[in-house]
Amino acid sequence: MEYIDLRSDTVTKPTPEMREAMATAEVGDDVYMDDPTVNELQEKSAEALGKDDALFVPSGTMGNLLALLVYCQRGDEIIVGDKSHIYLNEAGGSSALDGIHPRPIKNQSDGTLLLGDIREAIQSEDVHHTITRLICLENTQNSCGGVPLSLEYMQAVGKIARENNLSFHVDGARIFNAATALKISAKELVAPADSAMFCLSKGLVAPVGSMLVGAGKFIQRARHLRKMLGGGMRQAGVLAAAGLISLEKMTTRLEQDHIRAKKLSENLKQIHGLVLDADSPSTNMVYFNLADEVKLSVNQIADEMKKRGVLVDWAGPRRFRLVTHYWIDDAGVDKTAQALKDVMI
Ligand SMILES: *Cc1c(COP(=O)(O)O)cnc(C)c1O
Q: Which of 13, 198, 228, 311 has its CA 20 to 30 A from that of 219?
């Protein structure tokens, strides 16, 4: 059975064009920086994000971790959102591996950190204090509804970082979704930041990989640390070949996923017992809660949906997140809404 899989945009399998490009990719040993396909992907990624250089990494988690390791020494502090992926969903890697001290700040419902909260969190020079090194933002902010953070907001945070001599890193796992929703380029959106990470393996459909972008020296150090962590890959061009198609063709079609997410959300609003988030969705994620009177548990609903050919994942004891992507077409949206309607009766 071919499921309609809305659990995440990470479930996207490579397109036939990607498989073809992977099969025929020119490759070399990327630890020697000899892989022409990886090199091309890195050059094009740096250009797309407006930074000097880029590094192909196995995962977004490793991309973020490398950035933190480059900027911070043991005991240094990073300002992060309390609902950010770096703080909640990266297994505490930067603490475990480098003794980095996170300073979580409340993520507002629109995904931002209040500028006043950021300013207040920056430590003054005092023998009692940690040393604040870095501000991290997530764009789109996944757990706040996949919301994009505006260019004005990014610029305001960039200004705070510069005024306080801090670095500024963007977890842009879905930065192209943010740029699409805001109708600006990803390059403009990350211009206020020193570095950014974006995932090829989510809405951009590649099977594996993420990109870290930043200044030349930053990437040089990150490449060294990637080797240290065991992430130096050899003929990685077979993966980068799919990534090139992500960058060139998948970044320009995300609007379709956003339109389908809107359509799905409109349909779900009609279903009794489902409470959609206000102003949602702004990108490819539809979040909703179960009304109090609903007796079914999230697990029961997910099981019933699976029997009807639709995979969904809950995001809390009474909450779901449905994600549209390349492999979800209009018929898939209709079938999902119909299945949920049947289950909720
Ligand atoms: C998925 C994700 C990551 C990490 O990417 P992986 O490739 O899964 O390690 C980081 N940040 C955000 C916001 C993500 O959604």
A: 13
